[in-house]
Design a protein that fits this description.
Layout lengths: L1 H19 L3 H39 L4 H37 L2 H38 L6 H11 L3 E6 L4 E6 L2 H6 L4 H10 L1 E7 L4 E9 L8 E8 L2 H22 L1 H49 L15 H42 L4 E5 L5 E4 L1 H7 L17 H13 L4 E7 L4 E9 L7 E7 L1 H41 L5 H32 L7 E4 H9 L9 E6 L5 E4 L1 H18 L8 E8 L2 E8 L8 H4 L15 H11 L3 E5 L7 E8 L11 E4 L1
Parallel strand pairs: 12-14
Antiparallel strand pairs: 1-2, 1-5, 3-4, 4-5, 6-7, 6-10, 8-9, 9-10, 11-13, 12-18, 14-15, 15-17, 16-17
Subcellular location: Membrane
Main location: membrane
InterPro entries: HAMP_dom (IPR003660), HATPase_C_sf (IPR036890), HATPase_dom (IPR003594), His_kinase_dom (IPR005467), HisK_dim/P_dom (IPR003661), HisK_dim/P_sf (IPR036097), NtrY (IPR017232), PAS-like_dom_sf (IPR035965)
Length: about 700
């Protein structure tokens, strides 16, 4: 808006100055004001242009996108406007100066003088003719004064071609007149001065000019005679319109020429100033137009830059609606907008697919994390890239970070070597059994290649230790049953035979032989009893009855059982943490058997230990009840935990090796868990049993102690 107002003001001042130059007087008066107005208008336009230029320069200094291109385009447009304007300005100045000089040629002045003389000659001719006619009418009047009437005046007027004819008395009173316009004729009778001049010179004449027309008035003095008093005769004749127009034009031309001649140098200076102002205004206009054109030119580029920046940030920003041009740049912007929209849709689709993949991955990781089966994934170079929690436990890695290097195999290098050997030669799925001798565990390992799209290997490792153990227990149970049947049958006859031999021969043999017989038969009977106990143990293990479960209060069960150990040499402490409830679903007889077995093992482990001590602890943990038996004896031998529950495995000098096997079987029948650990202080051994509570009411935290 300000630019348009400035241009309008500058153009108005230039036009006003140009029009004022046509009037020398007006120009002389208005020139300073016009020059000031022009300077103000040009200064205003220049200020606006400079502000825009400085703004563009700052954008270039700041490195704004598109500013350098806009500056180059503006410079090119200015150069294109500068040189033609300079050439046109020089040529115009040259021709203006020559034209003004040509206006003041001597021939023009002579022509104007000749035209003026010709105009005066035409008037003089009219005056001379009218004077001659006046002389003739004077003589006619003197000769025929007695016979002159009103009709005679009209005849004379028409004959002479006069526009008016008057007869005045010597005192200026109208005696008669003739003319087409009587009112005009009477008004133009002349002035007393003209009458006096005519009286002195016999005639007087005057050319009367008005805005409407011009005419010649001649006054003739008629002296007094005997028959007639003195009088004045007034003749009126209008100047022809063509002569009047020519005279006016010549007069006006001479006046204008005189004014122009008087302001010749000022006129040249004015035209030079007008041209200079026009050129400067044109330059400023060119600069402002160039700035506007360059701004409009780079607008699509700015839109592209903004859209590209948003696209780089992962956002879709529509920019086509900002561009209205239908040229190639507009097409590029619209194409970019369509591409950005497609990319945004593709990105949204990718994000959705990625979210689905992540959800599936999280679901898979959750499933893998809760699997007891170990799952490992290797790449094509046999590098471990993924392992679930069970696999990390198998590999001996307790960290929470994913396994991503073969360093994670430090806990089980033997399995690593076996797997790498299998993957190196296998072309399809492979299944093999692997036994960890150190931990006493048995695993079934399944190795299978991944799909062609994702080359690599997946390894699934199942811990079948419990299955193998169950198979062994079943086998040992069958063996025990058969042994019990095969061994128990001859034991009774053997014992009876030994007792009969001792009874029959004891009195018949000498003392020495009798003692030998006594020792021999006693040994046989003791061994038979031992064999009988072992056979009974085999029988009990092989034919363990099903648990008859009822609601059992473990705290009461423990207290009732510890009564039998009060008189023993080793003190047993019962610690019940909390107030219960301590009820579980179980078989009281089998649970007592478990506790007796564990307490007996603890007492056996405390032989020869100074200050022996056994602690039975009962703890409630939410919906689980934990029962532990702890001693401060010699502890578990190395590798004992892995084989402790196998039948006939024992480290004691006495025993069948069925105690913990029976305990394990009873615990499994009660859906409980058993763990052999070493106490925190590292002394002795601890057996921990965990049962499911018969209810889910949590007891209050607390601690009570009962020593027996």
């Amino acid at each position: 808006m300000r630019v348009a107002v400035g241009f309008a003001a500058a153009i108005f001042v230039i036009l006003l100055a140009a029009s004022a130059s046509l009037e020398t007087v007006l120009f002389a008066q208005a020139f300073p004001y016009l020059l000031g107005l022009a300077a103000i208008a040009v200064a205003a336009l220049l200020t606006i242009a400079l502000r825009q230029g400085v703004h563009l320069w700052r954008q270039v200094r700041m490195g704004r996108f598109g500013s350098r291109l806009r500056a180059k385009l503006t410079g090119i447009l200015l150069m294109m406007a500068l040189f033609p304007t300079l050439v046109l300005y020089g040529v115009t100045v040259f021709f203006v100066v020559r034209a003004i000089d040509a206006w003041f040629d001597v021939r023009v002045e002579r022509a104007l003088d000749a035209a003026g003389q010709l105009a005066r000659h035409a008037i003089d001719t009219q005056v001379a003719r009218l004077l001659a006619e006046a002389q003739w009418l004077q003589s006619e009047w003197v000769a025929n004064a007695h016979s002159i009437q009103g009709a005679t005046l009209e005849q004379w007027r028409q004959k002479m071609g006069l526009d008016g004819l008057l007869i005045l008395t010597g005192k200026g009173v109208v005696q008669g007149f003739a003319g087409e316009d009587p009112q005009w004729v009477q008004q133009e009778a002349g002035t007393p001065a003209e009458w006096q001049l005519a009286k002195l010179q016999e005639t007087s004449h005057r050319v009367v000019e008005t805005e409407e027309s011009s005419w010649v008035r001649v006054v003739v003095w008629i002296p007094q005679t005997i028959e007639q008093e003195s009088a004045f005769m007034v003749l009126l004749r209008r100047v022809p319109t063509s002569i009047r127009t020519a005279i006016d034009e010549v007069t006006e031309a001479r006046s204008e020429y005189a004014q122009i001649t008087h302001g010749r140098e000022a006129l040249q200076r004015l035209y030079l100033v007008i041209l200079s102002v026009a050129v400067v205004t044109a330059w400023i206009a060119a600069a402002m137009i160039a700035l506007q054109i360059s701004r409009r030119f780079i607008t699509p580029l700015l839109a592209l830059e903004e859209g590209t920046r948003a696209l780089a940030e992962g956002r879709y920003l529509p920019v086509a609606d900002r561009i209205s041009s239908q040229d190639e740049l507009g097409w590029v912007v619209r194409s970019f907008d369509r591409m950005s929209e497609q990319l945004a849709k593709a990105q949204a689709e990718q994000a959705r697919a990625h979210a689905e993949v992540e959800a599936a991955r999280a679901y898979l990781e959750t499933v893998l994390a809760h699997l007891t089966t170990a799952v490992l994934v290797f790449d094509e170079t046999h590098h471990l890239v993924l392992a679930n929690a069970a696999a990390k436990a198998l590999l001996g890695d307790e960290s929470t970070t994913p396994l991503n290097a073969n360093d994670a195999w430090r806990g089980n290098p033997a399995l690593r070597d076996r797997l790498q050997a299998v993957m190196a030669v296998a072309s399809g799925p492979v299944t093999f059994e692997w036994v960890d001798e150190d931990k006493g565990k048995t695993f079934v390992v399944h190795v299978a290649p991944l799909t062609e799209a994702t080359s690599g290997w997946v390894v699934v490792i199942d811990d079948v230790t419990d299955v193998v153990l169950a198979q062994r227990l079943a086998a040992w149970g069958e063996i025990a049953r058969r042994l019990a049947h095969e061994i128990k049958n001859p034991l009774t006859p053997i014992r009876l035979a030994a007792e009969r031999l001792r009874y029959k021969l004891a009195e018949k043999l000498p003392e020495k032989e009798r003692q030998l017989l006594e020792r021999a038969t006693t040994t046989v009977i003791d061994q038979v009893e031992a064999m009988t106990e072992m056979v009974n143990a085999f029988r009990d293990y092989a034919k363990m009855p099903n648990a008859k479960k009822t609601r059992v209060d473990l705290a009461e069960l423990i207290r009732s059982l510890l009564v039998f150990y009060e008189e023993g040499g080793i003190p047993v402490e019962c610690v019940v943490e909390g107030e219960g409830p301590w009820a579980i679903e179980g078989d009281p007889r089998q649970l007592r058997q478990v506790l007796h077995n564990l307490l007996q093992n603890a007492q056996d482990a405390l032989e020869g230990i100074a200050d022996p001590r056994i602690v039975v602890r009962l703890v409630r943990q939410n919906d689980r009840i934990e029962l532990s038996v702890q001693d401060n004896g010699i502890g578990f031998p190395e590798g004992y935990q892995q084989k402790a529950f196998e039948p006939y495995y024992t480290t004691k000098r006495k025993g069948t090796g069925l105690g913990l096997a029976v305990v394990k079987k009873i615990v499994d029948d009660h859906h409980a868990a058993i763990v052999l650990t070493t106490p925190v202080d590292g002394k002795g051994a601890e057996v921990r049993l965990t049962f499911a509570a018969a209810d889910r009411e949590e007891g209050d935290d607390g601690k009570s102690s009962d020593r027996r």
